[in-house]
Amino acid sequence: MSTQRRRAARWPVIVLVVAGLYFLLPMVASLEFSLRDVHNTHSFAAWGRLLSYPGLLDTLFTSLWVAFGTVALTLLLMVPTVSWVHLRRPKLKRFVEGISLLPLVIPPIVLVNGVLVVFQDAPEIVNGTPLILVFEYVILALPFTYRTLDAGLSAIPLATLVEAARGLGASWPVVLLRVVLPNIRTAVLGAALLNLALVMGEYTLSSILLMQTFPVWMVSTGRTDAGVSVAVSLLSLLIVFVLLFLLSIVSGRRTRELRPFTPSAS
Amino acid sequence: MTVTEAAPEAVKRAGTSVEFRGLRRSFGEVAALDGLDLAIAPGELVALLGPSGCGKTTALRVLAGLEQVDAGEVLVDGGDVTGVPANKRDMGMVFQSYSLFPNLAVRDNVAFGLRLRGVAAATRRRRAQELLELVGLDSHGHRYPHQLSGGQQQRVALARALAIEPRVLLLDEPLSALDAQVRTQLRDEIRRLQLRVGITTLFVTHDQEEALSIADRVGVMRSGRLEQCDTPAELYQRPATAFVAEFVGTMNHVPGVVAGQEVVVAGHRLTLAEPAGARDGQLVKVLLRPESVTLTAEADGQALVSDRSFRGAVTRVTATLPDGTTLLADLPSVTAADLQPGAQAAVRFAPQPVLLAEGE
């Protein structure tokens, strides 16, 4: 029995090691590649050239503001919508979930054209600038956002909390801001991070729309200087990791504070 | 855990009258409320009791503004609030499930409604503390809901509901998630608090013992309508309908034969409580409370004692009549000593008007 237990206990470790290697090996390889110099030597030359390349900071900032714009618009649209579905139309959950999955199967060119058609009469500031990407990415992020928020809302007794708040005098906006949002804070942060990671790495739509974003810059730079391109990719990953780390700290603290709905009966 | 003696001035107020007039509410084909009429006097605690799906919770939610009606009116202090949204009604509600905001400490939960009303921070803190003292949890203000037991959470929910000085207190089966001991304790505390504060209260429950022990009046609901709304004693002793009689307390169903305005049961003539619509000679089932049945040990008695259950001052004796009918009798324990299983017993019934079971 104890031998069986020891064998069973090994499996999680094996899985963890294999998964870790699967993720780490490409990164280690990338790091090694970015450090390669002439005559089989290694140096930080490619990392040093990073800042000197034109367009790095511009495209990075463009991607960042598009990312934060996407996060803001997505949450503004999705938190009330998913809450409404949970509260008022729970039978529509599957339907809405199905709709939210469509961006995964719709080809990017169709998505781009669809959004362009919708915004064809919009002002130049929307059509002619990376702002159009915000609207594209909101749709693209829909599957991840919906599922994350749906999981967060399913984990709390939403109807009871909302009704309690309403009974105490809260208007609907107050209910959303002071009751729903704080209690799905982890899910909201998770959705925000997924949005952020998606936008910071999305190439196809930006490229089709001829927008100079960070991933587009990475690809074009990679054609001339592979070392810098890989270094920037790693930097981009590092940014996402830092954000993930911050999120885990914040959500970890919140989880310890909240841990609701497991009261004892006494 | 006890409730502190003095209610804070903040929550002492004159009661409010409530009236339901012809409330109707359907969910698809199901009529949850089917012309419900009810009047609650200021400061009164009325419990709505009934089987699942009878509409009691819907009625409470309609009063809270959480449910709309298809027809009818809700009057609070004479004013029509039927179309008023929930957040404008000033109703304090305690839910069946734990409803404290998990992201807020206990003190902030209690002060939540006050904050929405723009009450200054210092006043909020003071009143939250007063309310927590009132429910005996003044030392728990800094804790989070998950750090409290179920009973404590419901106490905080009660304090939170009272903090806004509601016009009416609504209790939607607030004790059903608690274990028996805590339920009884909290039930008594709710009643003491309600009397101290003097707030009009509507209490919904499916537990008849809870309803009968806490309420000034109990309304028994059936299929969206009120069958009877009376004091617990009236309801128990003089049920208006067979449904109420059977729903509240325990009833024997004893065969009888109608004879004019009387019914013959095991050789005894008993007066019918209401025109039953049964014809002479018709076989019926008569409803008799266990305490209306007397058994005395007699060798030639017609009932055979089959079981007995000691309940302190009273012993419940189970006996079988010759036709196989099982009869329950609650007898003073001192007189039931001879009624051991296997003994023959004579049966007598209290000379009270009786009701007939429905559909029999």
UniProtKB/TrEMBL annotation, chain A:
<feature type="transmembrane region" description="Helical">
    <location>
        <begin position="187"/>
        <end position="210"/>
    </location>
</feature>
<feature type="transmembrane region" description="Helical">
    <location>
        <begin position="99"/>
        <end position="119"/>
    </location>
</feature>
<protein>
    <submittedName>
        <fullName>ABC transporter permease subunit</fullName>
    </submittedName>
</protein>
<keyword id="KW-0472">Membrane</keyword>
<keyword id="KW-1133">Transmembrane helix</keyword>
<feature type="transmembrane region" description="Helical">
    <location>
        <begin position="125"/>
        <end position="146"/>
    </location>
</feature>
<keyword id="KW-1003">Cell membrane</keyword>
<dbReference type="Pfam" id="PF00528">
    <property type="entry name" value="BPD_transp_1"/>
</dbReference>
<comment type="similarity">
    <text>Belongs to the binding-protein-dependent transport system permease family.</text>
</comment>
<keyword id="KW-0813">Transport</keyword>
<keyword id="KW-0812">Transmembrane</keyword>
<feature type="transmembrane region" description="Helical">
    <location>
        <begin position="230"/>
        <end position="250"/>
    </location>
</feature>
<dbReference type="GO" id="GO:0005886">
    <property type="term" value="C:plasma membrane"/>
</dbReference>
<feature type="transmembrane region" description="Helical">
    <location>
        <begin position="64"/>
        <end position="87"/>
    </location>
</feature>
<dbReference type="InterPro" id="IPR000515">
    <property type="entry name" value="MetI-like"/>
</dbReference>
<keyword id="KW-0997">Cell inner membrane</keyword>
<feature type="domain" description="ABC transmembrane type-1">
    <location>
        <begin position="60"/>
        <end position="247"/>
    </location>
</feature>
<dbReference type="InterPro" id="IPR035906">
    <property type="entry name" value="MetI-like_sf"/>
</dbReference>
<dbReference type="GO" id="GO:0055085">
    <property type="term" value="P:transmembrane transport"/>
</dbReference>
<feature type="transmembrane region" description="Helical">
    <location>
        <begin position="12"/>
        <end position="31"/>
    </location>
</feature>
UniProtKB/TrEMBL annotation, chain B:
<dbReference type="GO" id="GO:0043190">
    <property type="term" value="C:ATP-binding cassette (ABC) transporter complex"/>
</dbReference>
<dbReference type="Pfam" id="PF00005">
    <property type="entry name" value="ABC_tran"/>
</dbReference>
<dbReference type="InterPro" id="IPR050093">
    <property type="entry name" value="ABC_SmlMolc_Importer"/>
</dbReference>
<dbReference type="InterPro" id="IPR003593">
    <property type="entry name" value="AAA+_ATPase"/>
</dbReference>
<dbReference type="InterPro" id="IPR027417">
    <property type="entry name" value="P-loop_NTPase"/>
</dbReference>
<dbReference type="InterPro" id="IPR017871">
    <property type="entry name" value="ABC_transporter-like_CS"/>
</dbReference>
<feature type="domain" description="ABC transporter">
    <location>
        <begin position="18"/>
        <end position="248"/>
    </location>
</feature>
<keyword id="KW-0813">Transport</keyword>
<keyword id="KW-0067">ATP-binding</keyword>
<keyword id="KW-0547">Nucleotide-binding</keyword>
<dbReference type="Pfam" id="PF08402">
    <property type="entry name" value="TOBE_2"/>
</dbReference>
<dbReference type="InterPro" id="IPR003439">
    <property type="entry name" value="ABC_transporter-like_ATP-bd"/>
</dbReference>
<dbReference type="InterPro" id="IPR013611">
    <property type="entry name" value="Transp-assoc_OB_typ2"/>
</dbReference>
<dbReference type="GO" id="GO:0005524">
    <property type="term" value="F:ATP binding"/>
</dbReference>
<dbReference type="GO" id="GO:0015418">
    <property type="term" value="F:ABC-type quaternary ammonium compound transporting activity"/>
</dbReference>
<protein>
    <recommendedName>
        <fullName>ABC-type quaternary amine transporter</fullName>
        <ecNumber>7.6.2.9</ecNumber>
    </recommendedName>
</protein>
<dbReference type="InterPro" id="IPR008995">
    <property type="entry name" value="Mo/tungstate-bd_C_term_dom"/>
</dbReference>
<dbReference type="GO" id="GO:0016887">
    <property type="term" value="F:ATP hydrolysis activity"/>
</dbReference>
